[in-house]
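Issue: ligand-bound run for L-rhamnitol - logging full I/O for the record.

Environment: standard queue, default settings, no custom constraints.

Inputs:
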Amino acid sequence: MKHEQIQKSYEIAKERYAQLGVDTEKALAELQKIAISIHCWQSDDVSGFEQLGGMDGSGIQATGNYPGKARNIDELRQDIAKVLTLIAGKHRLNLHAIYGDFGGKPVDRDKIEPTHFESWMQWAKDNDLKLDFNSTSFGHPKSENLTLASPNKDIRDFWIEHTKRCRAISEAMGKFQNDPCIMNLWIHDGMKDLTVNRYKYRQILEQSLDEIFTIPYTNMKDCIEAKLFGIGLESYTVGSYDFYLGYGAKKQKIVTLDTGHFHLSESIADKISSLLLFVPEIMLHVSRPIRWDSDHVTILNDETADLAKEIVRAGALSRVHVGLDYFDASINRIGAYVIGIRSTQKAFLQGLLEPVTHLREYEARGQYFERLALMEEAKTMPWNAVWDYFCLKNNVAAGEDYIAEIQQYEKDVTSKRS
Ligand code: RNT
Ligand code: ZN
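Outputs:
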């Protein structure tokens, strides 16, 4: 796109928004501050770099076999570095425990240490990224139906040890980067069929979590992620939303909302204002479920837009951590990253450009026709001119220009990976 054209369109949009009491410059400044935690696992379909004989597919599922996935740490880093050239702003990289730098040696999950992540810390620093972290309890010979909720002490202790180590690694990352590392805990624990010991497994999970969280840290923050169901575990999920909401409220832990982890007609946007009253902060896993928790690439749909709007309306940008969580192995993976990140930013921009003062005046006066009408008009306001200007200011491709850049990278780099 031509710079001049972007500049001109922006000036017109700025005036138009001003008529509705919206300051586009302020919106741009806010958007600039929103860091997105980029999930490392879209790059390689959640395989990781353990030398333990490969992930066994339990607990998580990526579908598709588009060529060019990252096969090692260097390729993953190269891909993320490419993604960073196509997005505006300063962001974070969200690592899973299986992505450690294990130096070609088998290191089991109850043996991982901060040293296995030192090269990541340095690389992140060199690339102006902050790190977040996740324990990995899926895809391992000990990933049975139950891990932290297992009545089998050996299994349970193995995963408790793993998760404790993950917290120590997160603490080291947070200290190194001088900014808290957000560590997410998600386990697949559940049962395929009707379960008669629901209470018992949840009680075990509560005890395991209490044990895991005993050491207080200052450079990391814990978050806990619920799920509705998993494939092969359809009837019962130990870590349900009720469970983690209760635990999070009681123990003041960050609750993670993955947009794919609820009934499809449930509004995740509506949960923001309730959660913020009872838990300290929220972590988001922005995804796009299609018929189930399918982890399609995040796009600018009503769900994403509403979620961003609710966060902005609640004045909660400082209490909500925005992370992405999807893994589509059927399309160009760099493209998948860039679409999801840019669409999430667009959703927040729309939220920041909402004429909320007028809307709230209407609401206070009971003028509900007027409220709805202005919301409809806001949808087609020239927000995209503000978006292109945001890209221009940040020196990254505006409009559809990033498509060609990704095609070129595919030609030069990813297509050559076998
Ligand atoms: C799984 C959860 C979890 C994972 C990642 C890889 O349903 O959403 O967050 O996707 O940890
Ligand atoms: Zn998730």
